[in-house]
Amino acid sequence: MPIVDPRSGEPLTTPDTDSSSAPSGADPASHIIDVDMSNFQQVVLEGSMNTPVLLDCWAPWCEPCKNLTPVLEKLAREYNGAFVLAKLNIEENQQIAAQLGIRSVPDVKLIMQGQLYDQFQGALPEKQIRDWLSQYLQPPADAPESPEEQAQAALAAGDAATARSIYQQLVQDNPRHYDYQVDLASAVLAEGNAADARTILDNLPPEHREAPKARGVRARLEFGEEAPSQKELAVLKDRDDSEARFKRALRQVADGDYEVGLEGLLALMKSDRSYGDDAARKTLLRVFDALGADHPLTVTYRRKLFALLY
Coiled coil: which residue ranges (predicted)? Predict the structure, then answer.
């Protein structure tokens, strides 16, 4: 019984296995099973006809796997039988890995009714995995908040210290999960410690240092450094020239009043495009970086910017 990819209609064949063998490495309390040639047919192919199977393809040398697998095991215990976590060591089962087309790990596949429903590669954050799973499986009613959700709730409540503490623990537990380090920099910045936030960002590997999420935190950091103080704003209160308008918008962005700041920058573009060597447009793009490409304000004001330009 092959696993069929519904997107291509092609079967994902696996080597013939003995379906009569008992599952090895089974943990009935947490629904976690180590799979190999002896039980792959029974646990993954036949088992998915009754219960969804999350196939975790990993390798002993894979550092991201060491971060991801404990998260998957935790979710398997929480879901309490809503799915089976089948763990495949590709080093010890290279024939199965080749038949499944595994090219890199971690590689996680959701198999239901003998079909490959979805998959992801890489060590995703716990919240992202929860969101991904919830598309197919009903989350347990009593599922606790993930650490990321707890940290985000703390930030929303203005408790940056608690968020920092949570992210510090996540970084300690997952040293190669660099998104957590970016989140930590963001929480440290929210506490008002720009120097430490900059150090965290500067110490990221280059590919993560230049990723959109890190650029966004750095942009917020720089806005805070560039924006005029309240004392300086008081001096500008009776002025309505381009410099005063630009500085007010910069302060609004630095204070998190993004929509008012974006509106001010867009208005400045309309009235004085040449100010500061096109500073309003360049700053708009930096704000988009700070908010992220999917933020509603980024989507709205990128559209307005495009309409103004073209």
Answer: none
| Residue ranges, CATH 1.25.40.10, the chain | 147-223, 227-309
* Residues annotated as part of the active site: 62, 65
The string of pLDDT tens digits covering residues 135-190 is 999 888 776 788 888 999 999 899 999 999 999 999 998 888 888 999 999 999 99
CB 244 within 8 A of CB 262: no
Map 27-47 to HEC letters: ECCCCEEEECCCCHHHHHHHH
- Which two three-digit tokens encode residue 175? 């040293």
Q: By three-state DSSP, how is residue 217 classified?
A: helix
- pLDDT at position 224 over 80: yes
Reference 253, options 275, 277, 224; nearest CA is: 224
Kindly report, residue by residue over 232-250, the tens digit of the pLDDT. Answer: 989 988 899 999 999 999 9
What per-residue confidence (pLDDT) applies to 46? 93
CATH architecture type of domain 227-309:
Alpha Horseshoe (1.25)
CATH class of 147-223: mainly alpha
**pLDDT tens-digit profile of 59-115?**
999 988 988 998 999 899 889 899 999 999 999 999 999 999 999 999 999 999 999
CB neighbourhood size of 32 (10 A): 20
- Determine the topology of domain 3-134 in CATH: Glutaredoxin (3.40.30)
Three-class DSSP category at 116: strand
